[in-house]
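Methods — Computational structure assignment.
A single polypeptide chain was analysed. Its primary sequence is given first, followed by the predicted tertiary structure written as structure tokens.
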Amino acid sequence: MHVSTMLVFWSFVRNSVVLAIYLLFSVACFFTVHEYYRIEYLRQHIQALKEAIEIDGVPVQGYYPWGCIDIVSASTGEMRKRYGMIYVDMDDEGNGTLERRKKQSFDWYRNVIATNGEQL
């Protein structure tokens, strides 16, 4: 990977972590987390890996997103920083049902895996 690509990558990662997740509730009270930014974030990273393999010959063995489930932020102890593809109903004070729900990125990433990265 070229140095300029790595710098853009780092800038994108650093700036993307602070984005908020928008929670949208349907009329039928079904819970959905629409997170188009996370899908775009993953898409760009996987595309860059493909370029690293094809252009620079980097021997990539695999790619793993930060985590599959929302966890407490190691740096701040906050739950509002949602990193996973599975939503956990818990707030920063530990309140909530702890119910888990798939986010939009869950099904998108499952499709990426099923197509071996051909459908980004």
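Note: The CA atoms of residues 41 and 72 lie 21 Å apart.
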